[in-house]
Amino acid sequence: MRLSVMITFRQVNKHFGSNHVLRDxxxxxxxxxxxxxxxxxxxxxxxxxxxxxxxxxxxxGELSVNGVNVNDRRxxxxxxxxNIGMVFQHFNLYPHMKVIDNITLAPIRVNGVPPKxxxxxxxxxxxxxGIPEKADAYPSQLSGGQQQRVAIARGLAMKPDIxxxxxxxxxxxxxxxxxxxxxxxxxxxxxxxxxxxTHEMGFAREVADRVVFMDxxxxxxxxxxxxxxxxxxxxxxxxxLSRLLHH
Amino acid sequence: MIDFALLFDYSEEYMEGLRNTLYASxxxxxxxxxxxxxxxxxxxxxxxxxxxxxxxxxxFFRNIPLLLVVYIFFxxxxxxxxxxxxxxxGTIGLTVYTSAYIAEAIRAGIMAVPAGQSExxxxxxxxxxxxxxxxxxxxxxxxxxxxxxxxFLNLVKNSSILGxxxxxxxxxxxxxxxxxxxxxxxxxxxxxxxxxxxxxxxxYATRLLEKRLARTG
Lengths: 247, 217
Fold this sequence. Notes:
The complex is a heterodimer. By secondary structure, chain A is of the alpha/beta class. Chain A has nine helices and ten strands. In chain A, the strands form two sheets. In chain A, strands 6-7-8-3-9-10 form a six-stranded mixed beta sheet, sandwiched between helices. In chain A, strands 2-1-4-5 form a four-stranded antiparallel beta sheet, with helices on one face. Chain A is globular, with a radius of gyration of 18 Å. Chain B starts with a helix and ends with a helix.
């Protein structure tokens, strides 16, 4: 069953010690939407998306994904995570495994896909991210951009409903950012539900259906990218954008 | 003067001792590695009582003398009606004692694997155990080879504890030879030579292994 609203935050709060990292978060994300989360560092962007697959727990409020309450003790978290791919800032590929094995590990072990089929699927996604020839390489033999593309293929191989991107280009050399963003753009066009934490404003402007601006743990402004970038309503958003432009 | 004739005159005793020392060492080596891995994983589970159990195990066996650990099995268990031979109780004691050190080495290795590795694995739906088995432990092993090889060398030497509980090991027979011939220095020197016969190849092999692991990065 597919619901049109995939992810719902209702009054979600979270602290790290005395630090209020998520303040009364309310957010609805629909199927096929591309939501880009921006804001200054420490504003809670990463924490926000890490709550979606319970890499972080929330303290109060309700968070549901595909109608399932993420923080309910009865929720089978591993089952929920099968449907949510995640891409990290530092790629986090498994260095002791070949690229192909990085990609097939979860499909085989979690979904019980036969190894041969998993391999074919992995090759399909490697093709999709543009590096089919690297199947038998080790991660250390790849450039940062290639590693991140493998990480995306690894996420896709589970055929998830949702992909989370936690600053996917922040650790990359500038000349490699484009190749990763291109893969993400293709995904977005194909209708993947994506939540992306990024500092790439060009990507947000071009690909996002919606921009969410966070500051000090709260969602300060939420709008379509064109309206947000050309005419931000909130002072803090204006300040943030003006600082970006001056760099 | 060292007289090698002793080694040949008592070759049967020395070979029997060498064989038993080798068996005890191999059994304890495999056993302590498996047990140590389990204890290390226990020490790091999210489940608090299990973590506490792992910690108690390590602190207990690491902080009492090996001789006492062996006595627990050799002298303590008979009080409960379980009677083990010197060889068996010595080998179990050695296994349990060494596993506490191995567990700590493995735990340090696991903690040296970046947190992002298990985050990536867990976020893809792998369970904690699967994450350990397929992602974290294979990487931790490389980090722990040097400290563990060290423990294995110690283990071979510590196996001489079997001599105290009539475990028919090298040390036991060296004592026998000594008491029959009164050639104390000679009898013990031969034992030392035979220990070196075990430990030097072991230390050489681990150095090779370390080099090889370093290559595959």
